[in-house]
Specification:
single chain, alpha+beta, five-stranded antiparallel β-sheet, two-stranded antiparallel sheet, 10 helices, globular
Amino acid sequence: MGDFDLYIMSMSFQPEYCYQHRKYEYYYCENPKDTWRYNLTLHGLWPEYNEGSYPQTCTTEKFDEAVVYEIGLGRFETYWVNSKVKAGEEGYTDFWEHEWSKHGTCSGLGQYNYFDLTLGNILKTPSIVSDNYGGTVAKVDLVDAYGGPSMVAIVCDTSSKKYLSEVRVCFGVEEGGVPTERIECPEHVLDEGNCGDEIHVDKFYVDENYSSRQKTFVRTGKDDSVSMVQ
């Protein structure tokens, strides 16, 4: 517990997540907040080893739902959203429970600090995303907006490798598991970037005038989800 080399922070672009899981008609995919159109949200903060493996499920400490309310439910709803379930309904905290049980228990931090520090370190989404909502950006420009080629992995959908799905960056770690400043990512993290030279910043499929894939978009039940390594 707490014996690792760095953290990976993975952030999701909800419009693409929702498109990839459209057959389920998740509540917040059908009823998105405006901020999710222009800002990525947290997927998780993951302890990692430099050689490419990672610890998981390091203790049996149960997730404490009360921590969410102590930190502030509104912060989670905005920055670490569970798109699947409406707030207050059964299963709404399952996403955070999973992140704590699999990754947080290996951080060396208590639950409050793990969640609070993760929320406190989320990167501001660069304006190139909001400025091009529903459009396209050059990969090199998006990479530069996140600090350059050694600092970020830009992850797109697995089928076309064109649509922005996740952004992964790296943080150092000090004694006790506290994340420090951003650092260059190891090669194995950078290799998770799979986008082509042009990246589509898609809209939510429920948006008026949704156009990026409208010629082929139907609720077919097909699921082209991004492959999650964690």
